[in-house]
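Appendix B. One record, verbatim.
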Amino acid sequence: MCLMKMKTYTVLCLVILTLSFISTPIFASSQEGFGLAFVSHKAQDLASKPFEEPKDSVPEELMKLSYDQWRDIRFRSEKALWQEDNLPFSVQFFHLGMFYNRAVQIHIVDGKKVTPLSFSPEMFDYGKNQLDLKKLPPDLGFAGFRIHFPINTKKYADEVAVFLGASYFRAVAQNQQYGLSARGLALDTGSSTGEEFPWFKEFWLVKPLKQSSSMVMYALLDSPSCTGAYKFTIIPGKETQIDVICNIYRRKEIQKIGIAPFTSMFLYGETENGRPGDFRPEVHDSDGLLIETEDEQLIWRPLINPARLLITKQTETPIKGFGLMQRDLNFDHYLDLEARYEKRPSLWITPQNNWGKGHVELIEIPSDSEINDNIVAYWVPEIEEGTSLHPLTFTYTMEWLTPDVDKERIARASHTRLVKEKEEGAYRFIIDFEGKELNEIPADTGLASDLNVEGDATLVERQLLKNIVTSGWRLSFKISVPVEKIKSVVPDRKPVVKLSAFLKKGENIPTPLTEIWTYDFRP
């Protein structure tokens, strides 16, 4: 389930909720009103106690629902949270059932007043399902929720963010469809001991003002290894921004923590030159990982659907930001009228406090289906031993956006293609670089390439040409890999060749004129 793509958000005709179902209010202890300190105190207290698995509070008949049956449970639009107040934001809720077996508790924050939101079957239209609604417990809770705000037209409140399942959430910007997912926290992802999946067990939704352009919410995260207190500030628009503050409290020592994690899908792309039996040239939600280092170098790593699990450290230098990008926005490169992959968002992470030492890690998982999220990326901090009394604090900004070539300050590696040569063990890479400044450089200028090959491979030849069609530049090079390495039946003996390249204005000029293209190649 963890890597299963929740592609049904846009077709779930669930609808919204009113305050008429809110039970007796409680009050925050702080005289300044409810805030992150309250949730942090709760997370710290929770971390000081042993982890308790959620009780089996979801009735069995809900858990036996098929996907179509669960999807047929629709939230009633007239029950919209804040709908009657005519606010710019409104919230809809998802029903428990199918594989959504962990109840999420919801609270509404209005000034200093904090009110728990009670579940009621009257909120939902159950469609063709024959359920005994009287047996549903009043404290059932919800599976998650989605937030609406008008970003494409003032007349309609679009779905802009959804929180559903474990600590997963997604968002979109203007004129986009859902694509990659973010998570609150990743624990021991890709480790031999198995991954741990924290979950948001409680949310506090802050009632916005009538003219608000942002919405604040808090979340309590729980897992066997740690707890967490989160503050999300959601600002929908042409580029949807989510500001995050999180305090992580450890119950025990954790092997690996992933901060600002996200998951995406990459089945195949331009590198493979299509796939037999599929009319679509490319199928992916993201096509590459982009990293900006502290010294403002940009590193681009095209994504791969590997034959076996591939975990790579992408950089161990301090960073200014990183993200999974969907750069290819050309419909003709996908030809999918339903999925519309050219409308999937990119997600960029900018740290707002000192994250200290660490590295960006990329995990690529073999996949034969587009319903699976097989790409994971996050920041792995170097952390010292600690307890629930010493939280790990991270603040960062998430930007859900459409990449804008005109805003880029350096030329990008726009296309990566790979050809297996007739000669055994020989492979050719073709990388196109494009950008305003680069495109203006004429063909007779002494442009140079910096090309590095690490591992069991030898650089055989390379060529740098002006691309007379795009006005950019094309780098083509050929490598040779020992045949005995390729044919090895021992997986760990199969080579991983690390490649990197960038263009520069001359052989003796070290400064990149383009971003740094990188690739982890396993023949």
